[in-house]
Specification:
The protein is α+β, with helices and mostly antiparallel strands. The chain has 24 helices and 29 strands.
Amino acid sequence: MINPKVMRELSSCYILARLADDSEPQYIPGLGIERKSVTRSQRNENDIVFYLQSLNEEPRPIKDIIGKHQKECYVSFDDRNGRYLQTIKYYEQQDKVSFLREHLEGKLILIKPKLNHRHDNPNHPFHYNFDIVMVSEDKQESNYYLPIPQVKKGVPAVRFEKALLEGAPITLPDYPSLLETPEFILCDGYLYHISDPDSLKGSEVNVTTYYALQPKGIKKLALTDLEDFWGKLRCAYRELGFITDNYSIELRDLFEKRGVSLFQQEQIKKEDKKQKASFEMPINLTEMEFITRLKQLAQDAELVYPEEDLINFHTSLKTGGIAVIGGMSGTGKTRLALLYADALKLKKDENLLYVPISPSYTEPADILGYLNPQLGLFMESETGLTSFLERASQYPDELFMVLFDEMNLGQVEHYFAPFISLLELPKDQRELRVYSQGSICYNKSFAKGCIPVRDNVLFVGTANFDETTKDFSNRMLDRTNVIFLEKLTFGEASVPKEENVEATNMSGGVNRKIYNQEWIKVNVAMEEHEILLLDRLHDLMREYDSQLGVSFRIYKGIEKYLANTPTDADGNALITRHTAFDYQVKQRILTKIRGHREQIQDLIGYCDAENRYHMGYIGRLLMEEGEGEDKFKFSLAFLKQKAKELTRNGYAI
């Protein structure tokens, strides 16, 4: 029998199906008044029952443990798939049987299986029910299809290949390991062929995690080398698509003739590295080593962050000098900032200052202090920020970091005002005025009453967004990335941690020169399609609010971010460029869209009474630019969440 855990996991599998074949009534259960694919129910003639048959290999527990025959039907009554049927106005039809048959006939139908216990037949202990996910406009061209899953979005091909070669975990978010080992996998513009089913093994903890056991036989081809691949992919949904068995035969032949072996490719790289290493001088801590160290520290502290979040936060901070970490309470915002400081080898109260923000902070003096003109004494704030910045100015080659915890409990634009302006100036012109130049102060001596604040000081804030906090103004949002940490599922969080094949460099420090010079590249102009999208977003937002839009400051910030995503030792980016651009659209532009329903609903969309999301103008623009949901996954999910908030509350923040 199947245990409850497997039953739950089965409901996350996807099966490609078609309407049952009326010419083979022996496979259609006798629940209707006729043994046909769509008919009225025996139990109640007002109910309609319809049957589907699978077109791809079904999950192993269904075919191996239960023993279901491939042609045995999945069954559903019309009230079981009410949500989908409502979207096609099924319940408004007079002849529901004819309408449903016409709607499903000859089309590819993506379903999730639902097994329900039955007690009337010990030889068949389950009802094979299903939920409709989508009905594709693609016509059925074959009686058998192969699924092609895609690696978790944002993972570059080089990272995926490294994980395969090192036996590290890889995630196929829409392909549970209860299904047969995938023969083909998509990642970042490449198709990979897994000729040996034993090459991959599913995790025993997380059903969407796999490990490569025998990577030698894995080959790859660039999608640009495959003629019209996307045109031959059927029923594409999220990170999953299907191809016909005939096309799979063509692909196998292509991989046999032109496929590039990952193992051989890696051997060539290793030889090249050996030759280069004999001529190169030792260098400082590399950025890749720093990212690895940050991951290791998080793992040691039993904290779970997606690697993309770590890379995103690091890139945002090093290119902007300031970053805000947002998200729901309990996602580890403060811990991430402290881990980052630990990775930089910063020590609390020496070159790391932790400042918990109070709602009473309303002006700069609350965090800096003030000069008492009667006594001629500078009365420093309890935060100690002034002395900390003074120390940072005395050691310009060392890195310092200030962490403002719960940053928006107070009104940021009021108490943080001097810094907002300061960070826009060239680094050699940043002078924080503490008191006026002509004032007399006996206990603090600042040249011209100012403290130099150079680029060796990093500013990090954490923020919640609820009824207890203040909104960030557009002036603040214009100058910083607001990073929303992605919460992993508990299943993903419980996946056994990968073991580092190579020892992590945990000893080397990071100074200002390494951080702001060696890890910073010269800006490269954005690509034309990226510039055009920013222009279109700006025009669209300005139509609804003259204070919204994409400023030149935001443009330059995005350009610097895209030019400075970390790379590995071979110069390959750790996140794909389209993922980096997606992050920037979400963090630098969409965070500025706030207000009441009348103000922003047309821009972000809305959710109807059935909680279905209807895209606004921005979502449709991103879909058009990205040719689907894939390229702007994070931005579209952010818009959807804002639309839900707008529908529920009448406003979004």
